[in-house]
């Protein structure tokens, strides 16, 4: 169970931009702003009350994260919050609305459970991607990982909707902006061998991020098996496994694509 935090002021008193997604059975029947696939399944994760900075307040059933809304104390650092669902397999897509874009840094991305979620002492930083535990896109159009940044797209403005496509099988993160694909930002995430969570951060007082559509698509069972074996078996030793020739060939094919170090794609 996750507690819903009620706050006063103009941070969490408006209506949500998104209505609930209607489903038929287990599959979604409502069109996404940017449908990554022709068929998919709805996900219902929200922001995690247990995995957040003390300067993050959650409302609307934890679908809206409000940053630095203390009426007396203004922002004195950077705050972040994780989603309450970890991803290990499959492809996952979600949209986040940045209501009021301002401040030193507003970011979205993915992170491990060990990611930093808070800074203080007036340390306003690009928190998502500051170390090896997270990968992020800032409102200034820069992508961050391991303390390094690369120019990725044009800056965001108020009410921008950012889509995140996390492919845990290929180990990639792609971003979308107001319905338009921005391309692949990061590769090699599967090499970490751990589950990843959605994350958002902000330095700005009374700023918000609002969850929109959340959906997923899983690969076939044989693809999942191959990906797990590839993570633990050296490519040169795959032919020693007692597997059918077709499966072994498919594993080698996949291995050639995923057994690479975590890196950022070169940008033009």
TrEMBL record:
Gene3D superfamilies: 2.60.120.920. SUPFAM superfamilies: Concanavalin A-like lectins/glucanases. This is B30.2/SPRY domain-containing protein. GO terms for cellular component: SCF ubiquitin ligase complex. PROSITE patterns: B302_SPRY. InterPro entries: B30.2/SPRY, B30.2/SPRY_sf, Butyrophylin_SPRY, ConA-like_dom_sf, FBXO45-Fsn/SPSB_families, SPRY_dom, SPRY_SPSB3. It comes from Nematostella vectensis (Starlet sea anemone). One of its GO terms (biological process) is proteasome-mediated ubiquitin-dependent protein catabolic process. Residues 24-218 form the B30.2/SPRY domain.
């Amino acid at each position: 169970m996750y507690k819903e935090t009620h706050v006063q002021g103009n941070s969490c008193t408006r209506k949500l931009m998104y209505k609930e997604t209607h489903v038929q059975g287990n599959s979604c029947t409502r069109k996404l702003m940017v449908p990554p696939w022709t068929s998919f399944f709805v996900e219902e994760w929200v922001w995690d009350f247990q995995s957040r900075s003390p300067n993050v307040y959650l409302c609307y059933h934890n679908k809206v994260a409000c940053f630095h809304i203390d009426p007396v104390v203004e922002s004195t650092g950077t705050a972040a919050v994780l989603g309450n669902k970890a991803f290990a397999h499959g492809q996952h897509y979600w949209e986040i609305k940045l209501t009021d874009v301002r401040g030193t840094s507003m970011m979205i991305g993915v992170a491990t459970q060990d990611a930093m979620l808070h800074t203080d002492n007036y340390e306003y930083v690009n928190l998502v991607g500051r170390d090896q535990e997270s990968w992020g896109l800032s409102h200034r159009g820069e992508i961050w990982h391991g303390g390094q940044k690369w120019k990725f797209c044009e800056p965001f403005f108020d009410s921008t909707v950012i889509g995140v496509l996390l492919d845990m099988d290929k180990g990639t993160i792609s971003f979308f902006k107001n319905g338009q694909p921005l391309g692949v930002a990061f590769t090699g995430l599967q090499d970490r061998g751990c589950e990843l969570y959605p994350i958002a951060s902000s330095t700005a007082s009374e700023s918000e991020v609002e969850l929109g559509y959340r959906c997923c698509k899983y690969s076939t069972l044989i693809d999942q098996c191959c990906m797990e074996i590839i993570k633990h078996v050296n490519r040169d030793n795959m032919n020693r496994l007692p597997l059918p020739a077709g499966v072994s060939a498919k594993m080698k094919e996949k291995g050639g694509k995923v057994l690479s170090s975590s890196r950022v794609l070169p940008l033009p």
